[in-house]
Write a structure and sequence with these properties.
The structure holds 2 protein chains of 2 kinds.
Chain A: E1 21-32, E2 35-46, E3 50-54, H1 61-68, E4 76-81, E5 84-85, H2 90-96, E6 97-100, H3 112-120, H4 128-141, H5 156-167, E7 174-178, H6 186-201, E8 205-210, H7 213-219, E9 222-227, E10 230-235, H8 237-244, E11 250-256, E12 269-275, E13 278-283, H9 288-297, E14 302-308, H10 312-322
Parallel strand pairs in A: 3-8, 3-9, 6-7, 7-8
Antiparallel strand pairs in A: 1-2, 1-4, 4-5, 9-10, 11-13, 11-14, 12-13
Helix pairs in contact in A: 3-4, 8-10
Chain B: H1 2-16, H2 19-59, H3 76-98, H4 103-108, H5 110-115, H6 121-153, H7 160-190, H8 194-223, H9 248-280, H10 285-297, H11 320-326, H12 328-351
Helix pairs in contact in B: 1-6, 2-3, 2-6, 3-7, 3-10, 6-7, 6-12, 7-8, 7-10, 7-12, 8-9, 10-12
């Protein structure tokens, strides 16, 4: 589909930059009234990556994106998109990025087509025919092609979908989405995920900001966690889980086949909760082998014996809200 | 450069097709029509009186003072009556279209959408200014055509000089409207939201147009010292004074000299007061517009004559260029004011964080 056709962009090289990096920040800092909204942020996002930028409300996600798109000026540090420093090349950067702001807005007195056509007129490379064709494609993609009413009468979900269309208007290399699933219904969320995966397959770099871990986990292959303006961790989902799991114990689930679990004693056990044939054991180490041996010796059939892995949500809550993220 | 016209075209169409603009323009037109109707009625009465006086002179030339000729009324009188109204309504229209140009886009979120595309910030603010000024120009064009059309429909044909003066007056009215448009645009850029923007604009409007001139008069009267006594009552002239050494003629001369001195003192006093008052209202587009309008619409315009100036010959007729030369300072302020306000809005908009 033409929507996902790759842009051919000539890339200049900077000595200090890896050729695969599409988004990079160097000591990026933004101070508002003496408070650091973003504090010395260093990020490198590879071309074709779907990067999830995760953090609670007020962590500095939107401020970072706004600096990446040139809406606000960094107090200190620099940011680059495709080797171009944003502050020095705002127009060139905007030619290759698409941005969906949080709570995106449009001109209420105009239709979706008129709004998109207005924005498209700022691209010197798009003539009237190309604009028309592109707008039709995008409105079809976001299922607003049959809507003729003015944007002022749109629901928030429709506005969000139009926002996504305007972010793709110039077939961008880099797509920055700030809380893109806000206001979308479940069907809209699924469609967004599918579209993002298609865009990623086409080699687009996607920067996906959200405060909802499940959303990020669904679509992103790498994530960065920000809290109080500081990047706490970054990596793949598994790497993040490992790095952030600060718990000192493991949780073992045991379930027998036909009779209640007898009392289990082990020097590493911290706590046990018995519920008939099921027990949840908190231990200092993985003692499944010892448990298994003990149950077999007592002729008790084992239905289930596993370690319960913490979810990313658990780790996120633990690290960002209670642990490492708290300043 | 092309981007400016893209923005300006959209803004212009938004304004002239917007309900707010059309409603205020309609009010402006209705009130102007009423003012014109009144003005034309007064003009016709003056014209009838003039014709009667001419007929009287032709019938009884011996009964008229030597060299006296009645003055033919000018159609500019109609516009003189309208100018104050034009000023206030023009300011309201300009404020109405300017106060939410930036703040409204910040509130709706469309500014972020717009700025995420390859467009310079100066393109946006310049385009918005151009579009707004275009809309005001459109309103003024409609008003000018309407005014001249009505005059012609009523069978009143302005002379060449009057026609030029009407057009120049409309041009300065537009310039005056730009001043308030620029104030509103500046407030729209500075304020966090449109409610604050309109509040700031109205406060500035009231302070510079009403509070400052009143304060200027008050301060002027305080600083100018005590008002000289002016006595219009003449002391009874005696054949000779008590000592008998001053004649009646000499007493009259002495009295006239005292009267003249007092007149001069009074004129000097009011010049001081007006000078200080002018300092306070130097930044007031309304005061400057009123002075420039008076110069343009009154062919016998003179600058300060004083309230107690000699009532001799009526002032000589001045050409429009001469009249504008008299009020050049006001004209300069009227030209500079929107430029300064726009410059503040421009700098602020270029540097602001769009959050």
């Amino acid at each position: 589909m033409a929507l996902y056709k790759r842009n051919t962009i000539k890339r200049g090289k900077r000595d200090n930059q890896n050729a695969d990096e599409m988004i990079k920040t160097e000591n990026l800092t933004k101070v508002y009234n003496g408070n650091k909204a973003v504090d010395n942020l260093n990020l490198e996002i590879a071309e074709g990556d779907i990067f999830g930028f995760l953090g609670p409300n007020g962590a500095g996600k939107s401020t970072t994106i706004l600096m990446l798109v040139g809406m606000i000026e960094p107090t200190d540090g620099k940011c680059f998109i495709n080797d171009l420093e944003v502050a020095r090349n705002p127009i060139k950067v905007k030619e290759i990025i698409g941005y969906l702001p949080e709570n995106v807005g449009f001109y209420g007195n105009m239709t979706a087509e008129q709004n998109l056509d207005y924005f498209a007129r700022f691209y010197a490379t798009m003539d009237a025919n190309e604009r028309k064709k592109r707008i039709e494609e995008l409105l079809e993609l976001v299922q607003l092609d049959s809507v003729s009413q003015k944007v002022g009468g749109y629901s928030r979900g429709m506005t969000q979908r139009l926002g996504f269309a305007q972010a793709l208007l110039n077939n961008p290399e880099v797509i920055l989405l700030d809380e893109p699933t806000t206001n979308l219904d479940p069907e809209g969320v699924v469609q967004l995920r599918q579209t993002l995966k298609k865009l990623s397959d086409e080699g687009k770099t996607i920067f996906f900001s959200s405060h909802i871990l499940a959303e990020v986990a669904q679509v992103c292959n790498t994530i960065g966690i920000i809290s109080n303006g500081t990047l706490i961790e970054r990596g793949t989902l598994d790497e993040i889980k490992t790095k952030l799991d600060v718990r000192k114990t493991v949780k073992i689930i045991v379930e027998t086949t036909n009779e209640d679990i007898p009392k289990i004693e082990h020097e590493n056990i911290v706590n046990v909760e018995y519920k008939g044939r099921r027990a949840v054991i908190e231990a200092k180490s993985d003692i499944r082998e010892d448990i298994s041996r003990y149950l077999v010796e007592n002729n008790i059939g084992i239905k289930e014996l596993r370690i319960e892995e913490p979810t990313l949500e658990d780790i996120f809550m633990e690290s960002v809200y209670k642990g490492k993220g708290g300043k | 450069m092309a981007g400016i016209f893209v923005v300006a075209k959209k803004e212009f169409l938004d304004h002239v097709m917007g309900k707010k603009f059309l409603a205020i323009l309609a009010i402006l037109m209705i009130i102007s029509l009423l003012a014109m109707y009144q003005g034309v009625e007064s003009y016709n009465k003056q014209l009838d009186s003039y014709k009667g006086q001419i007929a009287e002179i032709e019938e009884h030339p011996e009964g008229m003072p030597p060299g006296w000729m009645p003055e033919k009324p000018s159609i500019l009188f109609v516009f003189q009556m309208m100018s104050a109204l034009f000023g206030i309504l023009g300011a309201i229209l300009a404020i109405a279209i300017g106060f939410n140009l930036i703040s409204g886009e910040k509130e709706s979120g469309s500014l972020k959408s717009l700025l995420s595309h390859p467009v310079f910030r100066d393109t946006i603010i310049n385009g918005k200014a151009l579009g707004g000024m275009g809309a005001l120009g459109f309103a003024m064009l409609v008003m000018t055509l309407l005014s001249i059309g009505i005059l012609m429909m009523l069978g009143i044909m302005p002379t060449g000089d009057e026609f030029v003066r009407i057009l120049v007056f409309m041009g300065f009215t537009l310039l005056f409207m730009f001043s308030f448009f620029a104030i509103a645009l500046m407030c729209s850029t500075i304020a966090k939201n449109s409610t604050r923007a309109i509040t700031y604009t109205l406060v500035i409007f009231i302070v510079i147009s009403f509070v400052m001139p009143i304060a200027g008069t008050f301060v002027g009267m305080q600083l100018a010292g005590d008002m000289p006594e002016f006595s219009g009552v003449r002391v009874e002239i005696q054949e000779t004074n008590e000592s008998g050494d001053i004649s009646k003629e000499e007493q009259i001369e002495e009295q006239e000299r005292i009267q003249e001195e007092r007149q001069e003192e009074m004129q000097e006093y009011w010049k001081k007061v007006m000078g200080i008052q002018e300092m306070f209202s130097i930044a007031d587009p309304l005061s400057n517009f009123n002075k420039v309008s008076a110069a343009v619409l009154n062919p016998r315009f003179q600058s300060f004559r004083g309230f107690f100036g000699p009532m001799g010959e009526p002032p000589a007729e001045t050409s429009i260029l001469e009249a504008l030369g008299i009020v050049w300072k006001n004209l300069l302020v009227l030209l500079l004011f929107p430029v300064v306000m726009f410059a503040i809005a421009y700098i602020r908009f270029m540097r602001m964080d769009i959050r």
